[in-house]
Amino acid sequence: MSTHASPATPTAPVATGLALSEAEVLRLRSDFPALAAEVNGQPLAYLDSAATAQRPASVLDAEREFLLTSNAAVHRGAHTLAGLATEAFEDARATLADFLGADPDEIVWTSNATDALNLVAYGIGNASRGRGGEAARRFALSAGDEILVTEAEHHANLIPWQELAAATGATLRFIPVDDAGIYTLADAAAALTERTRIVAIGHVSNVTGFVAPVAEIAALAHERGALVVLDACQSAPHRRLNVAELGVDFLALSGHKMLGPSGIGVLWGRAELLNALPPFRTGGSMISTVTMTEASYLPAPQRFEAGTQPVSQAVALAEAVRYLEHVGLEHIDARENELAQRMLAGLALIDGIRVVGPAAGVPRAGLVSFDVDGVHAHDVGQFLDAQGIAVRVGHHCAQPLHRRLGLTATTRASAYVYTTTEEVDRFLAAVAQVRLYFGVVTAPATTTTGAQA
């Protein structure tokens, strides 16, 4: 019996050019059962992958095969099935480590990226109240220390730091964004001070698609002795990452955004930091010795993995990583930038549309958020849904950013490895009809089906 998942075998071959071609994407789509669905009598155009990605059959099969043949508690049993489950679980950890250019002992399983970010913030909070001994003193915060975020952060990379500041007396500061919702390296440098102890930023904005200059910011932060925490939720699914090249100290990602299952995320941290950070959760499986009055904890990563772990989800996430690597992150990234530029070009031809984020022609992630003058984003989303087009609407868990932009909500369309040009053009043609449908204008809006990439 074996729990090792077979290598991913996408229908589409490795791309013949830098960007996946339309033909290669069309072949890839057959790997995704959900994309064959119809919604409201129309073929599904799934443009909400920035929220949750669809899963290829190989990922679904990997989790099912594990549950059918090897399901058992890991690191606990002496029987054969437990050994096989543990082997699969740790093989998955090694796969994620290779994906990030890290060591397996630096990969901590979490329930999602939000959980991973909270683990770091609350671990630092524990260190600040004296837990963790001498090794943890490097993390301790007090009044006068500063935590630096950006005005564009997802709530998951903002609220934990708000709580940490409130608990320790530290000051929470932010790098401001401009009217497009983006910032520069100079803005980040100006916000850093000698009292900055933590810098927590998103690699890619889930609203604007802006790609932060992470390595440069990390270098500036380290000059001041600050730790750097990276939210990689919107980058890990789409572009090749290497933690050494990024220069950060902690990194969080979420499985469901990168073709994997829900209920699993990853925290990567430099080994010496993980082994010094006090644990956030306590209980079984993360201890070395327990008496009735005290406990000592295992080294990382087990010190952060209390309780029963998401074993089948880890196996499936590893298969998702193998799938992405087979297709090629560089090919996926290039393809998505082409689609984003096509969306930008098409939206620019429609009256009453305000797009946020980098200007057309500037590299961005494969997502575009926009406001339709006179029509609430939720109404836009319902109109598109009636035509089988799935998008995201709302503040996308980034209320401060929307407030800075003078908006309460936007509509977001996001592409992924399976998104076709035809789906983007369907989306543009539908958006062109929104204001007419809701009576905001009486003349037909400009159509965009001929938009060029």
SSE inventory with pairings:
Elements: H1 22-28, E1 38-39, E2 42-43, E3 45-46, H2 57-69, H3 80-100, E4 107-110, H4 113-128, E5 146-150, H5 159-168, E6 171-175, H6 185-191, E7 196-202, H7 214-223, E8 227-231, H8 243-246, E9 250-254, E10 265-269, H9 271-274, E11 287-290, E12 295-297, H10 311-327, H11 329-347, E13 353-356, E14 367-372, H12 377-385, E15 389-390, E16 392-394, H13 399-404, E17 410-414, H14 421-431, H15 434-437
Parallel strand pairs: 3-15, 5-6, 5-7, 7-8, 8-9
Antiparallel strand pairs: 1-2, 4-10, 9-10, 11-12, 13-14, 14-17, 16-17
Helix pairs in contact: 2-10, 3-10, 4-5, 11-14
What does this structure look like?
The protein has 453 residues and is an alpha/beta fold. It folds into two domains: 8-55 and 329-453, Alpha-Beta Complex (Aspartate Aminotransferase, domain 1), CATH 3.90.1150; 80-324, 3-Layer(aba) Sandwich (Aspartate Aminotransferase, domain 2), CATH 3.40.640. The chain is built from 15 helices and 17 strands. The protein has helices at 22-28, 57-69, 80-100, 113-128, 159-168, 185-191, 214-223, 243-246, 271-274, 311-327, 329-347, 377-385, 399-404, 421-431, 434-437, and strands at 38-39, 42-43, 45-46, 107-110, 146-150, 171-175, 196-202, 227-231, 250-254, 265-269, 287-290, 295-297, 353-356, 367-372, 389-390, 392-394, 410-414. It has a seven-stranded mixed sheet, sandwiched between helices. Strands 13-14-17-16 form a four-stranded antiparallel sheet, covered by helices on one side. Helix 8 links the parallel strand 8 and strand 9. Helix 3 (80-100) runs parallel beside helix 10, helix 4 (113-128) runs parallel beside helix 5 (159-168) and helix 11 packs parallel to helix 14 (421-431). The longest helix is centred in the first third of the chain and has 21 residues, at 80-100. The N and C termini lie far apart (50 Å). Mean pLDDT is 94; it is low at 1-7 and 448-453.
